[in-house]
Design a protein that fits this description.
By secondary structure, the protein is α+β, with helices and mostly antiparallel strands. It has one domain (about 5-150). It is built from four helices and three strands. It has helices at about 5-25, 60-80, 85-110, 130-150; strands at about 35, 40-50, 115-120. Strands 1-2-3 form a three-stranded antiparallel β-sheet. A hairpin with a 3-residue loop joins strand 1 (about 35) and strand 2 (about 40-50). Helix 1 (about 5-25) packs parallel to helix 3 (about 85-110). The two termini are about 30 Å apart.
């Protein structure tokens, strides 16, 4: 994958995420519920200082460290091409990176992540656009690695 395509895709995810978060903060009161798709989704503005399921509350330094390490690993892999990722796998990594960057911007700028999407058909934590890209990127990457890139998992024995 071209570095420009990777960067533009990740930047587009960040832009969409930040735009939706801006609209949420500007138009929905904290913890207010706004029906979106009845029986499926509602918008609920929440400030999350943790990670998934509000774990690691207040550990902003940990999230920053993980993001920096992830960034370094992506740059290193892109330059050296040691793992031989396919184009699709790079798209998945760009989705994960863009989502992570969107949430990191919130953490640095606000001290918390703006979440707003709440499922009404099942009990699940409130999440945001960045979380969707992180989750979908991870799932797609793992499925592709397991089903179509089996040599990725081979242990080279010498």
């Amino acid at each position: 994958m071209q570095l420009l395509a990777f960067s533009l895709f990740a930047a587009g995810i960040v832009a969409a995420d930040q735009f939706v978060k801006h609209l949420t903060v500007a138009n929905i009161a904290l913890y207010a519920d706004v029906p979106f798709i009845p029986g499926l989704l509602q918008l609920t503005y929440v400030q999350n200082t943790g990670a998934a399921f509000s774990s690691f509350q207040g550990q902003q330094w940990l999230f920053a460290l993980i993001f920096v390490i992830f960034s370094v690993l992506i740059v290193r892999e892109y330059r050296k091409q040691t793992m031989g990722f396919t184009r699709l796998e790079w798209w998945c990594i760009a989705a994960i990176y863009g989502g992570g960057l969107g949430n990191m911007i919130d953490r640095v700028r606000l001290g918390y992540v703006v979440d707003m999407i709440e499922t009404t058909f099942m009990e699940f934590p409130v999440f945001n656009i960045a979380d969707c890209f992180i989750t979908c990127g991870c799932i797609a990457l793992m499925v592709h690695l397991v089903l179509f890139h089996k040599d990725f998992w081979k242990d080279e024995k010498k």
